[in-house]
Amino acid sequence: MLPPRSTSVRKTETLIAGMVLTCALAGSAGAGTPDACELRFPKPLAHALLDADFDGDGSLDVAAVMPSRTEASPLLVAALYRRGAWDVRSLPFWSTTPGRAYVQPLQPGTYRRTKSVVPDPDSPAERRSVTSSRIGFVSGTVESTGVAYFYDGGSWIYVWIANAIQTVPGGGFLALGTGVSL
């Protein structure tokens, strides 16, 4: 039997479930309407919420940058929906500016570590490159960083793909020096 989840994890699960439901219901409103998350969530959070199937099981999963209750820096949370319950994980995140944090989808493929990050990877989850057949996401601070995250059959792995992200017309992002358009 699993130990009971803490109150903060249950609250995070409830918040994420509410965000997913809001985005899913508004997604049925039809093409040409503004993004539901932008309409219902504050602007900083609207660009920091993404729903996709990260683990390939056919269920909608979520990645979100969320405010921390104890620190000024935001948290990066990934939630996989499995067998009727959320598996919520806090991921390494270096953004310190909630209003400039973002989460954007990454297509399956190979992503290599940017040469502008000097030290060698220092975490078991950090890679020099990642090749994935599943969708992932990039998160960081606009006009500053971009870290690619992928779910790898039991754990999250990541690779720094940009040390500078620039906004582009139309609401997208460009990972400078990588040729990756987000």
Defining traits:
182 residues; alpha+beta; four-stranded antiparallel sheet; 3 helices; 37% strand; globular
Fraction in helix:
10-25%
**Radius of gyration based on Cα positions:** 16 Å
Q: Which class do the helix and strand fractions yield? A: alpha+beta
Report the span from N to C terminus: 41 Å
Beta percentage is 35-45%
Low-confidence stretches: 24-46, 165-169, 173-179
Global morphology: globular
**Total domain units:** 1
Number of strands: 13
Number of H/I helices: 3
Q: Please, what is the oligomeric state?
A: single chain
Strand order of the largest sheet: 1-2-3-4
Task: Give a description of the structure.
It is built from three helices and 13 strands, in the order αααβββββββββββββ. It has 182 residues and is an alpha+beta fold. Helices cover 16% and strands 37% of the residues. It has helices spanning 7-27, 36-40, 43-46; strands at residues 49-52, 61-66, 75-82, 85-91, 101-106, 109-112, 129-132, 136-141, 146-151, 156-162, 165-168, 172-175, 180-181. It is globular, with a radius of gyration of 16 Å. Residues 24-46, 165-169 and 173-179 have low confidence and may be disordered.
